[in-house]
Write a structure and sequence with these properties.
The complex is a heterodimer.
Chain A (H helix, E strand, L loop, with lengths): L1 H14 L15 E2 L5 H5 L27 E14 L6 E17 L4 E9 L1 E13 L2 E11 L2 E12 L2 E22 L7 E21 L5 E7 L2 E12 L5 E12 L2 E10 L3 E11 L15 E11 L8 H6 L2 E15 L2 E15 L5 E11 L9 E14 L9
Antiparallel strand pairs in A: 1-5, 2-3, 2-19, 3-4, 4-7, 5-6, 6-8, 7-8, 8-9, 9-10, 9-11, 10-13, 11-12, 13-14, 14-15, 15-16, 16-17, 17-18, 18-19
Chain B lengths: L1 H15 L21 E5 L7 E7 L9 E6 L4 E10 L9 E17 L5 E7 L25 E5 L4 E5 L2 H12 L9 E5 L5 E6 L9 E8 L2 E6 L1 E10 L8 E4 L4 E7 L9 E10 L15 E8 L4 E8 L1 E2 L5 E5 L1 H12 L7 E5 L8 E4 L11 E7 L3
Antiparallel strand pairs in B: 1-23, 2-15, 3-4, 3-10, 4-9, 4-13, 5-8, 5-10, 5-11, 6-7, 6-9, 11-12, 14-22, 15-21, 16-20, 16-23, 17-18, 17-21, 19-20
The chains are: A mainly beta, B mainly beta.
């Protein structure tokens, strides 16, 4: 069963087409990934202060001290968006949402080593325009695809019973393609196809801390200092002579400082409530040697509750087996403001977690949200997100009684 | 069961990830630097420099379906013929009663076509090839001092004349000893009194090719033999090259050359379409043969050597009766090469359609003409982002 799950997930991840359509992803480095697990999504996007025995967070490395055993975790997200101003337009896409591997190093201070793959952004848009020249009609498609991803490796440690610390190195990489295709309706005039490929790479870090207070309330902090990625851009043109020209440019891509502050507190033995604020200011960021006016400060504020029907938390194994249900909401403002119009989203979230077999767990979340306003150029949009995270684990450092 | 369930789920996931079609939503939000911009460059509107000239390009007529013969005030055309195959066993024996050559009329000609045609046939005394023999080769061609045949009279549907049987006997002996390359054939040349140039069918027309018929008494019997394996060509001279304008003349040949300055199109831009427009000068045009008002346009690979590219295109009638235009993928490619590699811009060569056979003259306005008549190149291209 375990092998089937892992194989199924890996196959799904390769079959997942990172397509979909959002013209907003044209700007900056694309739609920024929230880097949340399904559990965190179900709780209104709260992550910084949450600890878990099985859920490996992409956001706060300090939370890894709570993860028990050896774990392999991965997630998928399906997103659907419907535009109100164009009733025929609705888009759907599926994407990978992180792969993590967690290795326990030492148990007295809950030292953990975690490595993984985490998406940072995604570009996906397909826009069509039409026109005519000299009496010849044509259509032109503007396509964008790609994004930035990261390989991460980090460690967490609990030097004091009430303090967990974590740090994560991220190697960011990825390419963003932008293509223009012009096709004449007469079928005889040679069309245009030209594209640019921008490659990014660079290093970044995230540090985090979780402080446990009275009544097991936790206060979590994460900071990802600003980083600058090296970027190179090549242009390719398809000529009628079957050759193409590629020319290169170099530049930089800023990733501004990002921070999160969150609190969580158990209510009795079965409820956990949490809230969080996250912010990242893109207004002064350089995107390939220019400072686009469309970028602005972004934030997210959310809150959620988790209900565990069983209060048996006596062991890691027992906690892993418990079912959980979640409810939350959040509001966030994106980092792109088109024509001065801010892109605000409001979401209601629900989620559930259930054991699969042994130490394995699956969490699912469902989000219903609204983006934009009717008077905006893109109108209001309805968003639906469905996410699944599967965590597969095995016990380590289980002391056996000597014969 | 598990495998089946997994497969179904996998297919569902793949289906969920299928591409959407592009939509117009958000087109107005794209930055201006993303937008494709189409531009038009017009040498006429931009008053861009144009250069044109006419070149004499002696052209072999090996592939011509017609052989022109005759003479007018401005033109003279001669025919070369030879037959390379005769029955092998008649070389030494029998008696040649007559050897007659017949040429079949083609429906073209100019001058006083109804007047009698006069020409002489002379034996050629040196090697020649229809693939290389041109009008400037004729002056050095050695022929016999006296004619070996002649014709005077109305041309009709065909022209038949006899030739010296001694000459024919010499051909038979050469063929018998397998010295085919020494059979040089006949030169037919217009004689005095001719004031027309007439077209006759050539070897390419097969059933109406020039024929040589031998009537012999062989083995005591009257026998007729037909010569085979004909090689033929014609060589024409015409009017002087024009000092102004462009001239394209078939059969001689004159070829035009035109070169445009396209440096105003930024290097590296994608050329979507190129259109060449030429204006015919009716006063400088003579329609004598099939006269399709069409030219064949080639890229010039080397201007000095008049080296032609591999691909050509044929002009079409444009918006007015006296305009020709060429608009094709081949021309788009040619102009794209010029835009990307200016050093490859040697211009375009203009050839008469049916250049090998048709003694037609198309006069065109050249670079020195008024702007609306000058050769014109229009380029539609995409600006680089």
């Amino acid at each position: 069963m375990q092998r089937t799950l892992v194989l199924f997930f890996l196959v799904l991840s390769t079959a997942a087409a990172q397509n979909g359509e959002s013209i907003i992803s044209r700007f900056g480095i694309g739609d920024l990934d929230q880097q949340l697990t399904s559990r965190q999504r179900g709780m209104g996007g709260v992550a910084a202060s949450l600890t878990s025995t099985y859920d490996v967070s992409s956001t706060n490395p300090a939370s890894w001290t709570g993860v028990g055993g050896l774990r392999l975790q991965g997630g998928l997200l399906y997103e659907f968006e419907s535009y109100s101003k164009n009733s025929r337009l609705s888009t759907g896409s599926m994407s990978i949402k992180a792969l993590h591997f967690s290795l326990p190093l030492e148990e007295s201070m809950h030292a953990r080593l975690v490595a993984g793959f985490v998406p940072v952004s995604r570009v996906g848009y397909q826009v069509r325009g039409t026109g005519s020249v000299n009496g010849e009609s044509y259509r032109v498609d503007y396509l964008g695809r790609g994004g930035v991803s990261s390989f991460t490796v980090g460690a967490a440690i609990q030097p004091l019973p009430a303090l967990s610390l974590g740090a994560m190195y991220r190697f960011l990489f990825g390419t963003i393609d932008r293509e223009q295709q012009l096709v004449f309706d007469n079928g005889t005039t040679f069309g245009t196809k030209q594209w640019s490929t921008t490659s990014h790479n660079g290093s970044a870090f995230t540090v985090g801390a979780i402080v446990t207070g009275p009544g097991d309330a936790t206060l979590g902090f994460t900071v990802a200092p600003a980083a600058s990625l090296a970027a190179t851009r090549d242009y390719t043109y398809r000529y009628s002579t079957n050759d193409s020209t590629v020319s290169g440019e170099s530049g930089t891509q800023d990733i501004p400082l990002r921070y999160s502050v969150g609190v969580s507190s158990p209510l009795g033995k079965r409820f956990l409530v949490a809230a969080e604020y996250t912010a990242q200011d893109w207004s002064g960021a350089t995107v390939f040697n220019t400072m686009p006016g469309e970028l602005t400060a972004s934030y997210r504020i959310g809150a959620g509750v988790e209900w565990r029907p069983s209060d048996d938390n006596a062991s890691v194994a027992a906690a892993a087996k418990a079912m959980m249900f979640r409810l939350g909401f959040y509001q966030q403002k994106g980092y792109v403001a088109l024509n001065g119009e801010e892109q605000k989203e409001t979401f209601i979230t629900i989620g559930a977690g259930l054991p699969i077999l042994g130490m394995n767990r699956a969490d699912a979340s469902f989000e219903l949200g609204w983006r934009g306003a009717s008077e905006q150029i893109l109108g209001s949009r309805l968003l639906v997100r469905f996410a699944v995270t599967v965590s597969v684990g095995e016990s380590w450092f289980v002391r056996k009684d000597a014969d | 069961m598990k495998l089946r369930l997994s497969s179904i789920l996998l297919l569902a996931v793949i289906a969920a990830g299928c591409h959407n079609e592009p939509s117009p939503t958000g087109i107005g939000l794209l930055p201006g630097t993303d937008l494709v911009g189409l531009e038009t460059f017009d040498t006429q509107a931009a008053q861009s420099p144009v250069r044109s000239s006419t070149t004499f390009a002696p052209t072999p007529a090996a592939s011509s379906p017609y052989l022109s013969l005759g003479k007018t005030a401005e033109y003279e055309s001669s025919i070369l013929l030879r037959w390379l195959s005769f029955p092998a066993d008649i070389a030494e024996g029998g008696a040649i009663v007559s050897a007659t050559v017949t040429l079949y009329r083609a429906p073209y000609g100019f001058g006083d076509v109804s007047a009698p045609l006069h020409f002489e046939a002379r034996d050629v005394q040196q090697s020649w090839s229809s693939h290389t023999f041109t009008s400037d080769s004729l002056q050095n061609l050695r022929t016999g001092a006296a004619p070996v045949g002649a014709f005077s009279g109305a041309a009709g549907d065909s022209v038949t004349f006899t030739i010296d049987s001694t000459l024919v006997r010499s051909w038979l002996k050469l063929m018998s000893s397998q010295r085919y390359t020494e059979i040089y054939g006949l030169l037919l040349k217009a004689a005095g009194g001719t004031n027309a140039v007439l077209a006759f069918e050539s070897f390419e027309r097969l059933n109406k090719a020039p024929s040589l018929v031998l009537k012999m008494v062989y083995g005591g019997k009257d026998t007729v033999f037909n010569a085979a394996t004909l090689e033929d060509t014609f060589i024409a001279k015409g009017p002087q090259l024009p000092s102004t304008g462009l001239a394209v003349h078939g059969g001689l040949s004159y070829r035009g050359k035109v070169r445009f300055d396209v440096s105003a199109v930024p290097r590296g831009c994608i050329v979507n379409q190129a259109t060449l427009t030429l204006t015919i000068d009716p006063a400088a045009t003579r329609k004598q043969f099939r006269t399709a008002d069409s030219l064949v346009v080639y890229e010039l690979k080397d201007s000095a050597a008049f080296a032609l590219g591999d691909v050509s295109m044929v002009t079409q009638k444009a918006d007015t009766a006296n305009r020709l235009s060429a608009k094709s993928f081949a021309l788009t490619q040619i102009v794209q090469r010029w835009v990307n590699h200016p050093e490859m811009n040697h211009g375009l060569a203009l050839l008469k359609l049916n250049e090998a056979s048709d003694l037609d003259l198309i006069g065109l306005f050249g670079a020195e003409a008024t702007p609306e008549r000058r050769p014109r190149l229009t380029i539609l291209y995409t600006k680089k982002p």
